[in-house]
Design brief:
Layout: H1 2-11, E1 14-23, E2 31-38, E3 41-45, E4 55-58, E5 63-66, E6 80-84, E7 89-93, H2 97-110, E8 121-123
Antiparallel strand pairs: 1-2, 1-7, 2-3, 3-4, 4-8, 5-6, 6-7
């Protein structure tokens, strides 16, 4: 692994609270979840003490974007972004514009993995 893998991990790892909503699953409810971004995946936990994620998103299989005026039905909150696949739209809201910029940078870097084919969203329990 060496220095390169250590740098990659530091640049492509982030955790913190985000408001989350999975459109088509539980689209009327926003949940504040502990989110960990690492190893080409986004892991969503109920709290930072949990060891089993409620959801895992394979980032290379999703498109990353900001939620804009054309997406008004998704989220009208500031500092929001989305991860979309053919079958799901995942919405996230950060605490500030600085946090949003950092999340976008890390998620973008983690998406740069070889395409594993097919959309993978694992919902475990909520």
């Amino acid at each position: 692994f060496g220095v390169f893998s250590s740098l990659f991990f530091a640049k492509n790892h982030m955790s913190g609270h985000l408001l989350c909503k999975i459109v088509g699953y539980d689209e009327q409810r926003w949940k504040k979840l502990w989110v960990v971004c690492t190893s080409y995946s986004l892991f969503l936990y109920k709290t930072h003490h949990e060891t089993k994620p409620v959801c895992t998103i394979a980032l290379p299989e999703y498109e990353l974007g900001l939620i804009g005026p054309d997406d008004g039905y998704l989220c009208e909150l500031p500092h929001s972004f989305k991860l979309t696949s053919e079958s799901t739209v995942n919405c996230f809201v950060a605490d500030s514009s600085h946090c949003l910029d950092r999340w976008l940078e890390v998620v973008k870097n983690c998406r740069a993995a070889p395409n594993s084919g097919g959309s993978t969203l694992h919902l475990i329990s909520v």
